[in-house]
Design a protein that fits this description.
Elements (H helix, E strand, L loop, with lengths): L5 H21 L29 E4 L10 E5 L2 E5 L13 E5 L4 E4 L11 E5 L2 E5 L11 E5 L4 E4 L11 E5 L2 E5 L11 E5 L4 E5 L10 E5 L2 E5 L12 E5 L4 E5 L10 E5 L2 E5 L13 E4 L6 E8 L2 E10 L20 E4 L2
Antiparallel strand pairs: 1-23, 2-3, 3-4, 4-5, 6-7, 7-8, 8-9, 10-11, 11-12, 12-13, 14-15, 15-16, 16-17, 18-19, 20-21, 21-22
Length: 341
């Protein structure tokens, strides 16, 4: 087999970075974080041209507004499944595909049931959607999508219900990590082997987590950020070695982040934008946030097991905090941003 061309590699890198943003957009973040991404070719050339900072730019919006989706990349195309309409709780069964080469979105065969807050991962060129919650789904459901036939198929359910979890594929197996049970965060790691259609358990996370991001890097699973039982947003990073079946602590994130998109491009891990964005807000805390009708007092509250801003009609003056330290109003969105590595 011939090696991919430079343009093919560049397109694949862009698709991977769009996955990170699609995941974060799926979590309801309306504003993308400027990451200052740089070339990740691993060439070792530190010249200005080779190390020039990349830029984010707007990609065409998704066909439908939604949050808490499951996402994966197959053949340089982005697949976004399920989710819900903002924080309304109304689940969706939609599947959409984005082609970075043409800038076009396409609606594909919907899932057999509607749900949100499941996790997506690609294994054997199929998109797996694991867990998630709705009145029609019990949180144990696992579906896989075949791009060749445009069909969904149910497979062996999770051993226990999970929502707001993360999932990755590594070594021919699917890992379903952490999440809610569906009320409390858990540390369990379930492993699916498609050869036997069975789930087993790997070593649990050192802490119970939900709403975190994950990626595979140099044959290991990296889990970034997330929330613990008291809903505090984390900076911690945990690294899983499948050969040793052991977790270890990794380098902390620059700021606390949850509901973040994470992906690996070349020799770098990219994470963003997330909802925490550098400041931890407690339940009941009130701040001043800008809205389309002017600045209003907003209170940090729980909506459907997730933190959200509840706005009042009380006008206020927005703080002069630096933009990176301001809280972000979370809402459903169709916006997607694309970063070129």
């Amino acid at each position: 087999m011939s090696s991919p061309s430079r343009s093919d590699r560049r397109l694949s890198g862009r698709a991977k970075l769009l996955i990170a943003l699609a995941l974060a957009v799926a979590a309801g973040a309306a504003v993308a974080l400027a990451l200052g991404l740089r070339d990740s070719s691993g060439s070792g050339d530190n010249s200005g041209s080779a190390r020039a900072a990349s830029e984010w730019r707007w990609a065409p919006p998704m066909v439908h507004r939604r949050s808490y989706t499951a996402t994966g990349q197959i053949n340089s195309k982005i697949y976004i499944a399920a989710g819900m309409v903002g924080n309304t709780g109304r689940p969706l069964d939609m599947l959409e595909r984005f082609d970075p080469a043409t800038g076009n979105w396409a609606s594909l065969k919907p899932l057999p049931v509607s749900f949100s807050a499941g996790a997506g991962a690609v294994l054997d060129n199929r998109l797996y959607v694991v867990g998630g919650d709705s009145q029609d789904a019990n949180g144990r459901q696992v579906f896989r999508y075949d791009v060749a036939t445009n069909r969904w198929q149910g497979t062996t359910p999770l051993p226990a219900p999970r929502t707001n979890l993360t999932a990755v594929a590594l070594g021919g197996k699917l890992y379903a990590i952490g999440g809610l049970d569906p009320v409390e965060p858990v540390s369990t790691v379930f492993v699916y082997d498609p050869r036997t259609s069975r789930w087993s358990k790997a070593a649990p996370l050192p802490v119970a987590l939900q709403a975190m991001g994950a990626t595979v890097y140099h044959g290991e699973i990296w889990v970034l950020g997330g929330r613990v039982r008291n809903l505090r947003i984390q900076r911690r990073v945990w690294i899983y070695n499948p050969k040793q079946n052991r977790w270890r602590s990794g380098p902390s994130l620059p700021r606390p982040m949850d509901l973040l998109g994470v992906t690996t491009v070349g020799n770098r891990i990219h994470a963003g934008p997330g909802v925490g964005q550098g400041r931890d807000f407690t339940l009941g805390q009130s701040v001043c946030l800008a809205t389309p009708t002017g600045a209003r007092i907003a209170t940090c509250a729980m909506v459907l097991n997730n933190t959200s801003w509840q706005f009042t009609e009380t006008p206020c003056v927005v703080s002069n905090l630096r933009p990176a330290h301001r809280p972000v109003q979370t809402r459903h969105t169709r916006q997607v941003m694309l970063g070129a590595p």
